[in-house]
Amino acid sequence: MQKIATLFVRDPDDRRRVLPEVTPGCEWVTAGEGTPTRKYDGTCTMFDGERWWARREVRTGRSTPPNYVPVQHDEVTGKTVGWEPIEQSAFAKYHAEAVRWAHEETGTSSWPAGTYELVGPKVNGDPERAGGHRLRAHSAAEVLDDAPRDFDGLVAYLVDFEGEGIVWHHPDGRMVKLKRRDFAPAVTR
What we know:
Blueprint: E1 5-6, E2 8-11, E3 14-22, H1 27-30, E4 35-39, E5 43-47, E6 52-58, E7 69-73, E8 80-85, H2 92-106, E9 114-119, E10 134-137, H3 151-159, E11 165-169, E12 175-179
């Protein structure tokens, strides 16, 4: 799990916002390459084929949790992103509920290896309104064929967008994201 680049450059005076300048290396999105999908608003989990993991950021100066697997360090923010076993994460109980629901309601007893978004009432205030704790496979995210690829078009598109944002997937594996909240307060809810 590498940190996904944001489509537009962050404002150096307010890192929560973006400027109408494409982040170097992300030009392929504005050139029309890649598939745009819905970015779910939850917490990232991963099933490696044997074990479940929760995404975890560790700030500089903080100790890492037991069995933590670091993946990438961000020199700008000082955070290290990695995975911790789901059973020791703050979301363990809700993840267990989501797995149990999938088994009881859909008969799911095995999971393909991959990443999933854990959503539900106790995750980020339930913006996805999932009706309970659920796991959404990133590989099956809703495709957004109507998503524009220019700054002004994306501002207008995301004003009424129901998800957290967009993730573009390039056929070679690269990904780029853009969140609704990356724009001025008029776009965020």
